[in-house]
Design brief:
Radius of gyration: 19 Å
Number of helices: 10
Low-confidence stretches: none
Shape: globular
Strand content: 15-25%
CATH superfamily of the largest domain: 2-enoyl-CoA Hydratase, Chain A, domain 1
Order of helices and strands: EEHEEHEEHEEHHEHEHHHH
Number of domains: 2
Distance between the termini: 39 Å
Number of strands: 10
Mean pLDDT: 92
Structural class: alpha/beta
CATH topology of the largest domain: 2-enoyl-CoA Hydratase, Chain A, domain 1
Oligomer: single chain
Length: 258
Amino acid sequence: MPETDLIYTREDAVAHITINREAHRNAISGQAVRLFLDYLDRAENNPEVRVVCITGAGDRVFCSGADLGGGMTEGGAAANMFRSYARLLTRLYHFPKPTVARINGHCLAGGTGFMLACDMVIATEDALFGTPEVNVGLFPMMIGALIFRNVLRKKAMEMILLGEKLTARQALEMGMITRMAPREGFNNEVNKVLSALAAKSPIGLSLGKKAFNAVENMELDDAVNHLSDQLAKVAATKDAAEGITAFLEKRKPVFKGE
C-alpha cells in the first residue's frame, strides 16, 4: 500500500490525518490502520501540535469502514487486522490532545469507530451514518464499546440490528455527533472549532482528558476525590497561572503547555 493511502499534514498547531482512498470510498485497510497509529505517535510527540483533525478525502465519504476486499475473512490475517483496529480505537479514545472528526461525507461501519473515538465530531448536514455490518453477515463488535458510551442502549441496538442509515440530524439527536453544518459553511465551522481548541492550554487539556478517562468507571466518591487531586495538578501549572493573570488583566492568555 502506498503511503498516500493515509496523509499526514500539519497547519500551525493542527495535525490533519486524511484517509486518502476516495476511489474506494475511503475504506480502511490493515496497513492503513498501522500507519494511522504511527501518525498519532507523530502528532503526540510534536509539541507544536495541539489538536488532531481526522477526515476523509473528497466530499462524499468520510470512511466506509474496513476494506471488504482486503482479506477480512482470511483467518489469522483478519484477526490481526481486527486487533490493530481495536488498538487504534483505544489509542484515539485516550489520545492526550483534543481530537476532532471532520465528517465530510457518509460515515459507516468502522468509520463510526474513528468518529466516536474522537472528542468532537462535526458533520455536513447531508452525511449519512450507520452500522450496516449485519447486512453482510458481520457485526460491529469493537465499535460497540464506543457506541454504548455515546448512545442510549435501545437506540444503539436499533441502529446496530437493523443496519439502516441515519441522517446527520438523527445522529446529532442520538449524541453520535456534536455539530452539523451546511456544506457552504462546513469548513468555516470546523476551522473555528480547531482554532478555539488550539488556543487552550495544552497541558490543561491533556491532564483533564486523562483525568476524565480515569474516572469513567469509578464510584462517585472515588471519582470526585480523584478529580480533586487532578485539579490541584492543573492549578499548579504555569499555564493556569498565566490564564488567571490574563483574566485579571483582561487580555488573552498565552499558553505554552507548561
